[in-house]
Amino acid sequence: MRKVTNLIFEKSVIGRKGYQLPELDTPALSANTIFPAKLLREQAAELPEVSEVDAVRHFTELSKRNYGVDQGFYPLGSCTMKYNPKIDEDLARLKGFADSHPYQPEELSQGSLELMYRLDSILAEITGMARMSLVPAAGAHGELAGVMAIKAYHRSRGDHKRRKFIVPDSAHGTNPATAAAAGYETVEVKSDERGGVDVAELKQLMGDDIAGLMLTNPNTLGLFELNIVDIAAMVHDCGGLLYYDGANANAILGITRPGDMGFDVVHLNLHKTFATPHGGGGPGAGPIGVKERLVPFLPCPTVEFDGEKYFLDYARPQSIGRIKNFYGHFAALIRAYAYILSMGAAGLRHVSDTAVLNANYMLHHLKTRYDLPYDRICMHEFVLSGTKQKQQGASTLDIAKRLLDYGFHPPTVYFPLTVKEAIMIEPVESEPKETLDSFIDAMLKIADEVESNPALVRSAPQTTVVGRLDEVKAVRQPVLRHVFK
Length: 485
Ligand SMILES: *Cc1c(COP(=O)(O)O)cnc(C)c1O
Description:
Elements: H1 31-34, H2 52-64, H3 86-92, H4 95-98, H5 110-127, E1 131-133, H6 139-156, E2 164-168, H7 174-181, E3 185-189, H8 199-205, E4 210-215, H9 228-237, E5 241-246, H10 258-261, E6 265-268, E7 288-290, E8 302-305, E9 310-313, H11 330-366, E10 382-385, H12 387-392, H13 396-405, E11 412-413, E12 422-425, H14 433-452, H15 454-458, H16 471-476
Parallel strand pairs: 2-3, 2-4, 4-5, 5-6
Antiparallel strand pairs: 1-7, 6-7, 8-9, 10-12, 11-12
């Protein structure tokens, strides 16, 4: 393993300073006249002593070591790493929004409440649902809120025997985790040879102990579930409900809606489909939507309008209650609202058309060299298998690492679990053809390299600051803070 080069934290020189304070114009107080003795340090803190230029260069250097969507392509399947338009950032920074406070009275928050109310109805229209809750902080949080609403619905009908939730084997890991966290036993249903739910097996599982089914459509293989209408009827016939994992809805905007497919509950990830930043770029948002009969169970509060003013409604006796402080990640909601309005209905449809076209363009080129377990037209993403390359001497992990040398963020690998040596690619709509072509070129070159010199691919990456990290050691022995020598 190579050492971290060039990344020197020990820049501290005793006595060096990066700040200037004005002269004191009040009597000097020492810390022990202000704080109780038990709160005081016995020894001075060891803080780095650096000049302003040292500090600026250090952080600038670190920022260049980072990789983000403003810097390059992210073919990260299932993550929908699209460009985050800068106008959304400008609007989230408008003073009236940025300076507002969650404890501000409703009379002084009418603009913010109106934005939430409108976003609720737009997302309900996009998904074919009756109402949304914008409160959940992420996709997995939305899933939990949605499955809790389903549980509350069954209970409200005195129906206590439903203890199982069905989840397909290709599902995102959060789905079975959510069902379990909500107190259900998860039951796996296998995929059939076309990559969809095995309907015959599903039929066997049906019964009055089934609370519902969680499904992603298109699924995590990027394949559209052709039997969805039959599946929905089957689940409803036995008294269960259907949960749509809409974390990435990038293939369906303006084309089809979960509500029309028969789903009762859906969550969306605003930080995927609706272009708000992911992860380190800011907190996410995972609004949920429900059909009419589940509206009473939505989390508190909802935003309502009485014809004159907008208000937060806590008086919802059947609600699953509060699932987060305040009302959701408001700044993410502003960005998503700005994105939707700036795209318009036709623009959103164009997003999905282009996302699907881009994925199929890449699939068409890459399947010439990589195995494709389910050879169908894909939706917003597709899953290759590196099995052939593995036999030639380099695994999917090696291929992912080699992509770093070509300047690309690697795709999602080893997921979904149903595909061996899985390579899951989602190009999204915001990438130009030149980027798609250069990624295709890199993948084809790597296929050549695996054939001619697999050791080269196995020893990748060569060009990055750090080589391969010991991920197991990082988990077992985390060093979470810098220790000064
Ligand atoms: C990303 C994703 C999730 C989880 O979303 P988080 O915001 O990371 O909690 C759930 N399901 C699918 C299909 C996803 O792609």
